[in-house]
Design a protein that fits this description.
By secondary structure, this protein is α/β, with parallel strands linked by helices. The protein is built from nine helices and seven strands. The chain has helices spanning 5-16, 51-61, 87-97, 147-153, 165-175, 200-217, 222-236, 241-256, 267-275; strands spanning 25-29, 41-45, 72-76, 101-109, 133-134, 142-146, 179-189.
């Protein structure tokens, strides 16, 4: 977004310091002008903010249709950095070792405290964030995706703008037979932020996109179950009055607005998600 030039510079330095073959880098200015960047960085400046998935899709296409000019695409938040110079090499080794591995989700830790927020572990059992495992979704700001995944199942859902776009891609990838790994040894340092400070737009999109996510991807009998479970979870968290009103408004918006193409996952994929510990009702 152009408002963290110092942090972006630190991120780029950490990428340049990675061992092994150099990493090709594209920085997308999502509706903003970019600061001066090193000559080895390719840049794309968009005239308007396309949202997180829209901006990332532009970055993917910078490497050819579906990112086809490269084997793996790495996505990193501009205010994070890689503390370990072997991270990219480990990513390469992981994809080479498992031809059906489609996505790797990194562990996000606070650089000051070394802690990982519960919401940054993409599984229900999150007591040990250092433990690696197979998972059913991934973290949007710290991940690696095999380019074949985009070529087979399509890009991130740009109409989502913000929230749940990763799970939409993850469900489509899993339905196509790919696997997703959470790797506790692949770390992105990123300052911890409090979810309590999030604004009404965040809560609206969170709810709207959850409805869209279910309408696009779930078998019809599971849609009401999934949404009722999340309604109950939201109420149990006791959000503030303004946050709840925004959430309920987004929930209604998700039903009355187009969600994009519908490709419901197979019941075999539902069972696969269940065996991985997160059935698609929660």
């Amino acid at each position: 977004m152009g408002d963290r030039p110092a942090e972006l510079g630190r991120l780029l330095q950490s990428v340049a310091a990675q061992e092994g073959d150099p990493v090709q880098v594209v920085v997308v200015g999502n509706g903003t002008e970019l600061p001066g960047l090193p000559s080895w960085v390719r840049t794309v400046e968009l005239p308007e903010n396309l949202g997180i998935p829209g901006g990332r899709n532009v970055g993917i296409e910078a490497f050819g249709p579906g990112g086809g000019e490269v084997d793996v695409l790495l996505f990193l938040d501009d205010d994070g950095h890689l503390p370990d110079r072997e991270t990219v090499q480990r990513v390469r080794q992981a994809f080479e070792a498992d031809p059906r591995l489609g996505i790797i989700s990194f562990r996000i830790t606070d650089p000051e405290t070394g802690t990982t927020a519960r919401r940054h572990v993409p599984r229900l059992r999150a007591s040990d964030p250092a433990r690696s495992s197979r998972v059913t979704t991934f973290l949007g700001g710290a991940n690696a995706v095999r380019s074949q995944v985009f070529q087979q199942v399509g890009p991130l859902p740009d109409r989502f703008f913000y929230a749940h776009e990763e799970t939409d891609l993850a469900w489509r990838a899993l339905d196509a037979g790919w696997s997703i790994d959470y790797r506790g040894d692949l770390v992105l340092h990123h300052p911890t932020t409090s979810p309590a400070a999030r604004h009404a737009l965040y809560h609206r999109m969170l709810a709207r996109n959850r409805v869209w996510l279910s309408r696009r991807n779930l078998p019809l009998p599971l849609i009401p179950v999934y949404l009722l479970v999340w309604l109950a979870i939201t109420l149990a968290r006791r959000p503030s009055g303004p946050a709840l009103r925004a959430w309920l408004g987004g929930f209604a918006e998700g039903w009355r607005t187009p969600c994009g193409p519908r490709h419901p996952m197979s019941w075999r994929t539902v069972w696969r998600l269940t065996r991985l510990g997160r059935p698609p009702v929660v």
